[in-house]
Each structure stands twice: as C-alpha cells, then as structure tokens.
Amino acid sequence: MSSVKNRPPLLSLFGGAPVDPLRSKTMSRIRGKNTRPEMLLRSAVWRKGGRYRCHAKEIPGTPDLANTAKRVAVFVDGCFWHGCPMHFRPPKTRQRFWTEKIKRNRETRKRTIDRLGPRWRVFQFYECEILSDSQVCADLVVRALKQGG
Ligand SMILES: [Zn+2]
C-alpha cells in the first residue's frame, strides 16, 4: 500500500529495548489477539457494514477476522513477529534465534494462506499498515465482503 510505504518508520514497537527472553515468553502468549490495530480494523470494517467473526478456530490459521460465507479471511500481523520489512529489527541478543523464529512465523503464515486456497480472499496486514491508515485497509476488506459469496 503506497500510503504505508511513504510514511516514516515507527519507533520500535517495544520502545527500542531488546526483548529479554522472559518478556518475550509473555509476549508470545499475548501476541496476536485483540491488539490495538486489530480492534481499529474491526471497528472500521463494522462501521462500513462488513460483517465477520473473530478468531474462528475452524478456519485454517484462525484468522483475526473471517466470513466463511463470503470466504474472506484477514490476518493482522505484528511488525515484529511477522518480520515487517519496515519495522523488524532483530533484538541485540540472540539475533540468530529471533531471525529464525520470525522466518518460521512467516513461513507458517504463507502455508496458512496456501491452505485456504484460491477460493478465499486473504488479507494480511502488518500492524503498521492499519495504524497508518485503518480506513484504507478496512475499505479493501469491506469491498471483498460485499463482492464475495
Ligand atoms: Zn511495520
């Protein structure tokens, strides 16, 4: 999305501090669900008339938003956990570990999208894209929801 590419990089989502293992353990438990960007997107989509379920476990990858009848799935991915090209910086310690971990996360996401297959329209947003312009992201999703079925 061009509007996203033109914006200056955000400060590190972790305030620039390296992630220590204890903290990262906590973060890995809490990551992903009901984050601020996800809530922003959800409310924008809802206001525009898009209807969806959240974290539907029977759909591959448990998308953050999904509409099975319309075959639309949306993943809101953290800039750190999914290696956003603009914002991912490996922490200063255990760089190899983190780089490998993020790489695996990206591969898992790609496999999930493959599993959903061509019949689904799948959106993958980085958090920063939604924070930068939640309306544009929501418009894309709502358009797909209105076309699908
Ligand atoms: Zn980002």
Could you characterize what this model shows?
The chain is mostly helical. The chain has a single domain, classed as 3-Layer(aba) Sandwich (Endonuclease, Chain A), CATH 3.40.960.10. The chain is 46% helix and 10% strand. The chain has a three-stranded mixed beta sheet. Helix 4 links the parallel strand 2 and strand 3. Helix 3 packs across helix 6. The longest helix has 22 residues. The radius of gyration is 16 Å and the shape is globular. 28% of the residues are buried. Zinc ion binds next to loops.
Short description:
With 149 residues, the protein is mainly alpha-helical. 46% of the residues lie in helices and 10% in strands.
Shape: globular
The largest sheet has its strands arranged as 1-2-3
Output the helix-strand order: HHHEEHEHH
Q: Helical content, roughly? A: 40-55%
Bound ligands, named by name, code or SMILES: zinc ion
Name of the CATH architecture = 3-Layer(aba) Sandwich
Low-confidence stretches: 1-30
The count of DSSP E runs of length 2 or more, i.e. the number of strands, is 3
- The domain tally reads 1
Question: What is the arithmetic mean of pLDDT?
Answer: 83
Separation of the first and last Cα atoms: 25 Å
Proportion of strand residues: 5-15%
| Structural class by sheet pairing and helices | mainly alpha
CATH class: Alpha Beta
Write the topology of this structure.
Layout (H helix, E strand, L loop, with lengths): L1 H4 L15 H10 L5 H12 L17 E3 L4 E6 L17 H22 L4 E6 H6 L1 H14 L2
Parallel strand pairs: 2-3
Antiparallel strand pairs: 1-2
Helix pairs in contact: 3-6
The structure holds zinc ion (ZN).
The site of zinc ion (ZN) has 6 residues, from loops.
